[in-house]
Amino acid sequence: MDLYEGILTTRAIRRYTDEPVTREEIEACLRAAQQAPSGGNTQPWQYVVVTHPERKRRVAGIYRAAYERWERAQLSALPPFRTEEERETFMRGIRASRYLAEHLDTAAALVLFCVPKISIAPRDDDGVVEIGPLYASVYPAVQNFILAARSFGIGTVLTTVWWSRQDDLRRLLGIPDRYEIVALVPMGRPRGSFGIAPRRRAEDITHWEQW
Ligand SMILES: Cc1cc2nc3c(=O)[nH]c(=O)nc-3n(C[C@H](O)[C@H](O)[C@H](O)COP(=O)(O)O)c2cc1C
Questions:
Q1: What is the distance between the alpha carbons of residues 190 and 155, in angstroms, rounded to a whole number?
Q2: How far is the CA of 31 from the centre of ligand 1 (A)?
Q3: Is residue 207 part of a domain?
Q4: How confident is the model at residue 79 (pLDDT cuts 50, 70, 90)?
Q5: H-run or E-run covering 201
Q6: Cβ-count burial of 139 within 10 angstroms (0-12 exposed, 13-18 middle, 19+ buried)?
């Protein structure tokens, strides 16, 4: 597949068939993640790959509890919609997210990205020399993983809605306290299809030479 076409047609896939995803495919996606850039080439992340059905169910239980709380809060303070179409688009997103929350364990694998709770910024006499958040050094790896999965016809979606239950996930999976989980990516063969998702037009938000 052409790289550019692969990027354009990668979108959130939350519904999966029960076709398998092989260990070789997962490992190939992880190798792609390893090639991502990171500040100073620190490569601070580690992965936890969950494929065992019972363990996936337990992760799904934690995810769902966090999701329910988020959805309640979100629906009780809806953003103002300019049009009915905008409202429907938003509600479609909620329904798709809820579906995932109710079926997370149907993904062939759940891949967690973890980073240590450290700062890689040096100090000088004036204090910390800020170089941006550590997260900036891991999400490129997540996106590489997602794009590699796309190249194998495997659907994924970056998720963070479980964040309020981060401690429960860490405990369940034996992740050391000094690590923060920053992404949970379910992967599976899509029940829907890949395609170009609606987005704002780049030219409407691009400032050439000066804002
Ligand atoms: C930082 C981040 C966090 C996200 N968290 C979740 C999540 O917890 N659950 C979920 O179902 N989707 C989550 N998403 C997916 C977005 O909802 C999705 O990328 C967006 O709606 C665009 O979807 P589309 O590519 O299908 O148009 C997240 C995406 C990002 C980048």
A1: 5
A2: 23
A3: no
A4: confident
A5: none
A6: middle
Quote the pLDDT of residue 119. 86
Residue 109: CATH number of its domain: 3.40.109.10
pLDDT of residue 17 exceeding 90, the answer is: yes
Q: Please tell me the chain's helix, strand, coil percentages from 3-state DSSP, rounded to the nearest 5.
A: 50, 15, 35
- Atom 6 of ligand 1, nearest CA residue: 159
Q: Does 99 reside within a domain? A: yes
Alpha carbon of 209 to ligand 1 centroid (Å): 31
Q: What pLDDT band is residue 9 in, cutting at 50, 70 and 90? A: very high
Q: Is 165 in the pocket of ligand 1 (CB under 6 A)?
A: no
In a domain, residue 182? The reply is: yes
Q: Which two tokens stand for residue 34?
A: 């390893």
**DSSP-derived secondary structure letter, 196:** P
Nearest to 152 by CA among 184, 186, 190, 185: 190
Q: Is residue 204 included in any domain, yes or no?
A: no
DSSP classification of residue 111: E
Single-letter code of the amino acid located at 74 = Q
Instruction: Determine the atom of ligand 1 nearest the C-alpha atom of 161.
Output: 8
Q: How many domains does the chain have?
A: 1
Structure tokens at 27: 């490992």
